[in-house]
Design brief:
Elements (H helix, E strand, L loop, with lengths): L60 H5 L3 H12 L4 E6 L2 E5 H11 L10 E5 L3 H10 L4 E6 L3 H9 L13 E7 L20 E10 L4 E10 L4 E8 L5 H9 L2 E7 L5 H10 L4 E5 L8 H10 L36 H16 L3 H5 L4 E3 L21 E2 L1 H6 L8 H5 L5 H12 L5 H16 L1 H11 L5 H12 L1 H6 L10 H27 L7 H7 L11 H10 L2 H7 L10 H28 L4 E3 L7 E5 L11 E6 L2 E5 L1 H33 L2 H24 L8 E3 L8 E6 L12 E5 L7 E5 L6 H17 L7 E5 L3 E5 L12 H15 L4 E6 L7 H18 L2 E5 L3 H7 L5 E12 L7 E11 L7 H7 L4 H29 L2 H10 L1
Parallel strand pairs: 1-4, 6-9, 8-11, 9-10, 12-22, 17-21, 20-24, 20-25, 22-23, 23-24
Antiparallel strand pairs: 1-2, 2-3, 4-5, 6-7, 7-8, 13-14, 14-16, 15-16, 18-19, 18-21, 25-26
Function: Component of the post-replicative DNA mismatch repair system (MMR).
Organism: Temnothorax curvispinosus
Protein name: Probable DNA mismatch repair protein Msh6
């Protein structure tokens, strides 16, 4: 526990050669209470008990009594946080013991220290790097700090009647618990490696047993930014809304109330989020009810103003509170599940010591499922703001991940721009005016490459300002700095961390200065969106930052602050600091007056002597000692001089020391107060970042528009009742091959029906064409250029996809069940303004059943008149619709060559060109040949196929004969 660079003697060991011993026999592997059959939680419940808490463990008292004081302290903390890897501070090092040490060696390549039990560690300054590495691997990491020094420990023990040896150890407290979903970037942490949001999701479910339909309450947050989202919704049988939430805002940490989620929902979470941390919490004691969390929020200091301590609910929370309850302690009707979900979230954040800094930001938003307003709208265009893209469509169209749409469009320079682009792709606009504004902005940027390059140069230098805002807010929160154990922690690298905080702050200020230069680049732009977002209020929407930036620019010496690690404000910046300086100046005047009075009294030069608590002794020459009166107290002497204190001097010393202590106290809190001043303008800074993010996305789309043959889509709002898609020379945006064959696609336009049945050979490009149409539609509605020579579309309210053969093995769902579930969602929710992409429906069952279901779905969709591309290999289905004017037949063209007059050895050359009419065959034997199937088998298969085809043809002719008149019969007989 000594303040030196060496580890305490009890753990001062040498590394083991080559790290891990050949045969580990660590003591913790033999501890009886850690054996699987003996393990109990802190309340001594077994894993079979429904109330068992796996986050804790019972450690026997006799075991604790046999530990050293420091190790007993470690085990006591471990018993309450058994699921955490401890970084346990001893002196200047974080130590890992027992099972944690093994993890440290295996995952972090640390080295075992010599000794009886497993033990590894690293210097304090390495915390950020090592914790980030474990957290990214899915571990929960707890940082434990010393919050006493030996002197403080001794003072504490001196007040105890009979302190034991276990009392005589410096106090340690958990200061931070981190998972992938609960990270905040403190001065100890390394910066985020990705701009992506890693969400913490709190989930509540209420099942309707009669209908098997569930209602969900959700609360999710990106802790690095500090914005909460609350929502409540009724889901369908397939849990489409929950799946869409998980796709739009993918969580990496999910909490829920133990025993309340249905088996179906648990299975969905496990299958959809295989690597996310799932954490069940005990009812009420850990996962707070709606009334409990509202009470705790009201009683806490989260929403109290620092100046007057007045309480006010954040605006974003007010819609969730019952208006009849003046205190806001009752949830509003139909909002209880959402507030209950907030209860679980707040509990966890409190356990992780994060609730104060995150709640105090007061950023609460409502999450509304994107299809909410579409639910009651089947007759007209869904006038919601955005297109609905559900989880199935995100997956089937490959909007995210490798080889995805975002990979092609994302040329953003900033982290916050990248996050906004993802939001645009998840929710393309359904507002014509919004889309046109974006198109005009992108077009003007394309025409002004010089400005765009200058803008990108500035954007590329910007850090993640959105996350920096949250960091600065945390450092400026008075309640957190006062009550959080980090405020008591003894950090040996404290000066380094203080400098990091100052660097973050000054960097943020400097980069906002750069933002103002960025805004100036667009002074002569004409497009309405750019002018609105780059003109200062009130002419535009960009906030007036100059006055505030100038204030902080002159408030203190930035370079000196970065060098020293603390801020010394200039006059007029901090009233309390100014008053201290005035007090010190008055003291100096009084001291000068006192000294002058002493000079006059003794008639010679008099000086002060002494330092610190012995200052302001007057030093009198021995020749004048005779003038010393009864009020002078002799304190010391040197040759030729004697030193005295007077009552007045002692009073002046006391006043000076009080003033200096006051100054030190003010300076210690001054960083926080300056940060708090900055955070008072949080809404202004946040608004500026949002405008900047939008500009970054527009510039990214403009950069994309420069590549290849692109066009600006023509957008129709469907107000005239016409719904159509017309794409000329369209290309798949994610396939950049030079020899890609472009295609024209028309639905409900140019004599084409709104429903297209698409046929063609296997591997002929049907699925690619369908994805191409879906992706171009999304791009058009986010305001992007599209890869086509021309594109004209009516606004689409939702894209439905049924693409590919997907067995959901983990969920126990067959291909056919997955097909029908996705198809049921289409039939239930599609409107005439929807785009439906269905690929080979019915493949998961028998030919007859598959054909019948496909035919029934085609019939239902043609009645809905939604825009549909429907590919199939069921040629009997094509026959049924070849004269139907509600359906257009098309195929992916190919050339067929037959070798050695053997039809089974036919060679198909794909032309990848969309052509009119149906394709006569699917050419499956070509695929068999490409796959290496033996020619003997393909010949035999061809014979069987030819016989089956003849039988089918005979049936069609017989059916036609039965329906035909005399002339028709003669014609049919002639064909035979």
């Amino acid at each position: 526990n000594k303040k030196d660079s060496k580890r305490p003697a009890q753990i001062q060991n040498q590394p083991v050669s080559n790290g891990l011993p050949a045969t580990p026999t660590w003591p913790h592997l033999k501890f009886e209470f850690l054996q699987p059959e003996k393990i109990r939680d802190i309340n001594r419940k077994t894993p079979k008990d429904p109330d068992y808490d796996p986050k804790t463990i019972h450690v026997p008292t006799d075991f604790l009594n046999n530990q050293t004081p420091a190790m007993r302290q470690w085990w006591e903390l471990k018993s309450k946080h058994f699921d955490c890897v401890f970084f346990y501070k001893i002196g200047k090092f974080y130590e890992l013991y027992h099972m944690d040490a093994v993890i440290g060696v295996n995952e972090l390549s640390l080295t075992y220290m010599r000794g009886e039990f497993a033990h590894s560690g690293f210097p304090e300054i390495g915390y950020g790097r090592y914790s980030a590495s474990l957290i990214e691997r899915g571990y929960k990491v707890a940082r434990i700090e010393q919050t006493e020094n030996p002197e403080m420990m001794a003072a504490r023990c001196s007040k105890m009647a009979r302190p034991t040896k276990f009392d005589k150890v410096v106090k340690r407290e958990i200061c931070q618990v981190s998972t992938r979903g609960t990270r905040v970037y403190t001065p100890l942490d390394v910066e985020a490696s990705t701009p992506n949001s890693n969400y913490l999701l709190s989930l509540v479910e209420k099942c309707d047993l009669a209908s098997t339909i569930s209602s969900f309450g959700v609360c999710f947050i990106d802790t690095t930014i500090g914005e909460f989202y609350l929502g409540q919704f009724v889901d369908d049988r397939c849990n489409s809304r929950l799946l869409t939430l998980l796709a739009h805002h993918p969580p990496v940490h999910v909490i829920y109330e133990r025993g309340t989620l249905s088996q179906k929902t648990l299975q969905l979470i496990n299958n959809t989020l295989p690597v996310a941390l799932k954490e069940p919490l005990q009812r009420e004691s850990q996962f707070w009810s709606a009334t409990t969390v509202l009470k705790k929020l009201h009683e806490g200091s989260y929403f109290k103003k620092e100046n007057d301590s007045s309480f006010a609910w954040p605006e974003g929370l007010k819609p969730y509170l019952n208006e009849g309850d003046s205190l806001g302690l009752t949830p509003a009707d139909n909002k209880e599940l959402a507030i209950h979900a907030l209860g679980g979230c707040v509990y966890l954040l409190k356990e992780f010591l994060l609730e104060q800094q995150l709640l105090a930001q007061g950023c609460f938003n409502t999450y509304t499922p994107p299809d909410f307003s579409a639910a009651s709208s089947r007759a007209g265009l869904n006038y919601a703001n955005t297109m609905v893209i559900d989880a199935v469509t995100i997956k089937n169209l490959r909007l995210f991940g490798d080889g995805s749409l975002i990979g092609i469009l994302d040329r953003c320079c900033t982290a916050f721009g990248k996050r906004l682009l993802r939001e645009w792709i998840c929710r393309p606009s359904c507002r014509k005016n919004v889309i046109i504004e974006r198109q005009e902005a992108v077009q003007e940027l394309v025409d002004r490459m010089d400005v765009m390059q200058s803008a990108r140069a500035i954007l590329s230098t910007l850090p993640d300002l959105e996350r920096l805002l949250s960091k600065i807010h945390a450092q400026g929160n008075a309640a957190r700095m006062k009550d959080h154990p980090d405020g008591r922690a003894i950090m040996f690298e404290g000066p380094t961390y203080s400098k990091r905080v100052i660097v973050d702050f000054t960097t943020t200020l400097a980069k906002f200065e750069e933002v103002l230069k960025f805004i100036e680049l667009f002074d002569d732009f004409k497009s309405s969106l750019i002018t609105r977002y780059t003109r200062y209020e009130p002419d535009g929407e960009f906030p007036q930052l100059r006055e505030t930036l100038d204030y902080f620019k002159t408030a203190f010496d930035h370079e000196e602050a970065k060098k020293q690690g603390y801020i010394v404000p200039k006059k007029g910046v901090d009233a309390e600091y100014d008053s201290v300086l005035i007090e010190l100046a008055e003291n100096k005047k009084d001291l000068d007056r006192y000294l002058e009075k002493q000079k006059q009294h003794f008639g010679v030069k008099i000086t002060f002597h002494g330092a610190d608590r012995k200052r302001y002794q007057i030093e009198v020459p021995e020749s004048q000692v005779k003038k010393v009166g009864p009020g002078y107290e002799l304190t010391s002497q040197r040759k030729g001089f004697k030193r005295y204190y007077t009552a007045e001097a002692k009073e002046l010393l006391a006043r000076q020391m009080n003033a200096e202590e006051h100054k030190d106290k003010v300076l210690k809190d001054l960083n926080r107060r300056i940060f708090a001043q900055f955070s008072e303008k949080y809404d202004m800074w946040h608004a500026a970042i949002h405008k900047l993010a939008t500009m970054d996305v527009l510039i990214s789309l403009a950069d994309y528009a420069r590549n290849g043959d692109m066009c600006i889509p023509e957008i129709h709002d469907g107000s005239d009742g016409e719904v159509f898609i017309r794409i000329k020379d369209g290309k798949h945006p994610c396939i950049t091959s030079d020899n890609f064959i472009p295609n024209d696609t028309s639905l409900a336009n140019d004599d084409a029906a709104s429903f297209m049945i698409l046929t063609g050979p296997n591997m002929g490009g049907k699925s690619t064409l369908m994805r191409q149409v879906g992706l171009i539609t999304i791009m058009a509605q986010i305001g992007s250029y599209v890869p086509a020579s021309s594109c004209c579309i009516t606004l689409v309210d939702r894209i439905f996809t049924r693409l590919g053969a997907n067995d959901d093995i983990l969920a126990g769902q067959s291909t056919f069940l997955v097909e029908l579930s996705e198809t049921a969602a289409i039939l239930q929710h599609a409107t005439p303004y929807s785009l439906v992409l269905v690929d080979e429906l019915g493949r998961g069952t028998s030919t007859y059943d598959g054909t019948a279901i496909a035919a029934a779905v085609v019939n239902a969709l043609t009645k809905l008149k939604c825009l549909t591309l429907f590919s199939t290999h069921y040629h009997s289905l094509v026959e049924d619709y070849k004269t139907n004017k509600e359906v257009t037949l098309a195929h992916m063209a190919c050339m067929v060559e037959t070798e050695e007059e053997e039809v089974s050895q036919e060679t198909v050359k794909f032309l990848y060109r969309l052509s009119e009419g149906a394709c006569p065959k699917s050419y499956g034997f070509n695929v068999a040949r490409l796959a290496g199937v033996s020619s003997i088998i393909t010949k035999r298969a061809h014979e069987i196929a030819r016989r089956m085809e003849q039988e089918t043809n005979h049936k069609h002719i017989f059916n036609a004969l039965c329906k035909a008149n005399g002339a028709g019969i003669r014609s049919l007989i002639a064909t035979i």
